[in-house]
Amino acid sequence: MANAGSAIRGSRVGAGPMGEADRGYQAARVERNYYCSNGHATNRAFAANVEAIEIPEFLDCPNCGLPAGQDKDNPPVIAKHEPYKTHLAYVKERRTDDEAKELLEEAVAAVRERRVRLAEAASAND
């Protein structure tokens, strides 16, 4: 039997008709450019029916991760990072030195009272 010929010869599985008309039309878009402080430019497309206030003012730059804005001459600057704060630093923010001294005195008095009670209980058991 000779080559019978195939209608799908030369096509791949899942291939469809070529051309925009056969696949449908592309939705209307609005493009915005975003610029980061490292000089990277990113173009993003949004649906044309989206309101302008819904388009984000800032995005994360896909190249470096810094914030990127739409103003090429004035890209957003990353906020200064504060160093890691210890628990004591947070406590000092909430309490004055006088409050801290008062709390310390109360805690020391409570420990002393507990030690006295334990010593008395230990001497009573002997």
Walk me through what this model shows:
This protein is an alpha+beta fold and 126 residues long. Among the domains are: 44 residues, Rubrerythrin, domain 2 (Single Sheet), CATH 2.20.28; 39 residues. The chain is 33% helix and 17% strand. Strands 2-1-4-3 form a four-stranded antiparallel beta sheet, with no helix packed on it. A hairpin with a 4-residue loop joins strand 1 and strand 2. The longest helix has 29 residues. The radius of gyration is 35 Å and the shape is elongated.
Helices and strands in order, then pairings?
Blueprint: H1 20-23, E1 29-36, E2 41-47, E3 58-60, E4 67-69, H2 87-94, H3 97-125
Antiparallel strand pairs: 1-2, 1-4, 3-4
User: What would you call the shape?
Assistant: elongated
Q: Quaternary arrangement of the chains shown? A: single chain
Radius of gyration: 35 Å
Give the C-level CATH assignment of the domain at 26-69. Answer: Mainly Beta
CATH architectural type of the domain at 26-69: Single Sheet
Biggest sheet overview: 4 strands, antiparallel
Name the structural class. Answer: alpha+beta
Mean pLDDT: 84
Taken in chain order, the helices and strands follow as: HEEEEHH
Distance between the termini: 112 Å
CATH names the topology of the domain at 26-69 as: Rubrerythrin, domain 2
Q: Could you give the count of β-strands?
A: 4
Helix content class: 25-40%
The share of residues in extended strands comes to 15-25%
Low-confidence runs: none
Strand order of the largest sheet: 2-1-4-3
Number of helices: 3
